[in-house]
Amino acid sequence: MRLDIVITGVGGQGNVLASRILARAAMDYGLSVRTSEAIGMAQREGVVMSQVRMGSGSFGALIPNGQADILLGFELAETVRGLPKLKQGGVVVVNTETIFPVSVSLGLSQYDPDQLISYLQEQADGLKPVHATALARQAGTPKATNMVMLGALAGLNVLPFAAAHLKQVAMELIPTRLREINLKAFELGQQAVGGA
Prior knowledge:
- This protein is of the alpha/beta class.
- The chain has a single domain (2-194), classed as Pyruvate-ferredoxin oxidoreductase, PFOR, domain III (Pyruvate-ferredoxin Oxidoreductase, domain 3, 3-Layer(aba) Sandwich), CATH 3.40.920.10.
- Helix content is 41%, strand content 24%.
- Strands 2-3-1-4-5-6 form a 6-stranded mixed sheet, with helices on both faces.
- Helix 5 runs antiparallel to helix 8 and helix 6 crosses helix 8 (179-192).
- It is globular.
- The mean pLDDT is 92.
């Protein structure tokens, strides 16, 4: 068994923490895990892509193009940019929130969220759009977007471990003072895709 997950977004969205939570949850289940992270030049709002591979046998940390089972997109444009990693029939969970790059703010490029969603719908049969940042705000802070996305992923029942286990690991890795908000965010994510 092997499961390859790409998490893509921009700096400040909790991408790296999400990948570590997934890795820890898989290791608790006795699975071999490899991870890698590519962090953009900008500290905030630069591209961040994490790769989490779990399963049996030997494998490296980098997911070859066209082999990811799941693309977890924290930001719309970065999700489109991560599509080459996805295998045919793979699942895409995308946060519909947009973060306009500086080039758009300066009028040097365009960003059309509707066009990006349409493109994702054409390219990925298993597309699951989630208003993750809005749900994180509902939970108490937009910084909990990563927990909404993990909750949505857990709600799809595509992981080799129970959603409850992923939630437990997430709460163990989050500071005590932030657990209530993040727990609510996780559960809102599950509910957004019809999970528990």
